[in-house]
Amino acid sequence: MLVQDGVNMSRILAVDDSPDNLFLIETVLDAPEYDLVFAEDGWKALSKITECLPDLVLLDIMMPGMNGYEVTERIRQNDSIPYTPILLLTAHDHVSLVEGLDAGADDFIRKPFDIDELRARVRSLLRMKQAMDAKSYMIQQRDDFVARLTHDLRTPLVAANRMLTFCRNEAFGVVADEAKDAIAETISNNQQLLDMVNTLLEVYRHDAGHKALTFTPFNLYDVASTVVNELTPLAKEKQLTLKLVDQDDNPIMDTSDFEMQGDILEIRRVLTNLIGNAIKFTDQGSVEVQLQRTQTRPSQVPQKENTPECTAWLILKVIDTGIGISQEDRAEIFQWFRQGKQRRSGSGLGLHLSCRIAEMHWGHIDATSEVGRGSTFSLFLPVTVATSD
Ligand code: ADP
What we know:
Elements: E1 2-4, E2 7-15, H1 19-28, E3 34-39, H2 42-52, E4 56-60, H3 68-77, E5 86-91, H4 97-103, E6 107-111, H5 115-168, H6 177-207, E7 216-219, H7 220-237, E8 241-246, E9 259-262, H8 264-280, E10 286-294, E11 310-320, H9 327-330, H10 350-360, E12 364-370, E13 374-384, H11 385-388
Parallel strand pairs: 2-3, 2-4, 4-5, 5-6, 8-10
Antiparallel strand pairs: 1-2, 7-9, 10-11, 11-13, 12-13
Bound molecules: adenosine-5'-diphosphate.
Adenosine-5'-diphosphate binds at residues 273, 277-278, 281, 320, 322-323, 325, 333, 339-340, 342-343, 346-352, 375.
């Protein structure tokens, strides 16, 4: 929306091959709040729309060369054009309105149009455009805010931890043991805050659709094994056994079954979250990571239209003997900032992010649990055709 002499102006592009019709539209919409732009055919309309980014397009259907349906389709297919409402102008007896609406138009009006009706429809579509622009603006502001906030928080936290580490290492003089412990505690708290800020940034990137994944072939067993090795000291601290096995509880000898394609860093993030949670929420017993391969889509995975052709599915189960999750909480824990009643340190973002990552791989995460006995989180990932070739 433009602002001129303090008046909010909406730019309207009118497209019609008949100069008389364009003249009529100009007369009907002659008002200080409208900035009218004209095009006499589809090609000119497409170039004007990218040039002047109108708030609304009034589009005649029957035009020589490119008709209104095709113009509509091309506008909708062009990702660089922000959403612009399209009002189709149609001859009285025209029957293919369905085609126009299906192509992406928002409304239509029959010719010869009633002047008040045309004005009312224009006002209504401009209101819709304003609401959509306001929403995009808010999302943009939110993303900028999160990016700035996370940056502004991260930088001093990293600097503070560096300085505290120097202090603890007595770089500035002798430090009493009690003070060393206090410094270590502060460093650990800062690190937790840093992890949370990093996760928050990742969640926003995913939710805002700004996250681009880098797909490469890798072996899921190798990633699981790395994460298990990394988290073993944490499990040992709690006297839990942590092992990576096949579905029959046996060590995995042949790992060739677990080749897949995906973003290795993101999948590693998911595994770290699932196995890390299992350790966090288990006080005695074990955490078992089971890997298996199956030829068909597991029934827990909802069928998705855009799943690429896949030759098999990999299933990674994280089975713990921990506190479990009530049925009520199970419905919520995948939503962001939801921690369930049995919360321990953390942010409630990990499972939400993990689910998003699984979905971006056309996969799924599922949880079963029994309070007091333990939980099983299953990650399902397809082996896409490109990988198995
Ligand atoms: P966080 O662990 O940081 O709180 P998550 O999104 O990873 O956030 O998990 C959300 C909640 O799900 C946890 O707070 C906890 O209540 C529950 N949860 C996740 N994994 C387990 C598990 N293995 N056992 C019991 N509860 C779990």
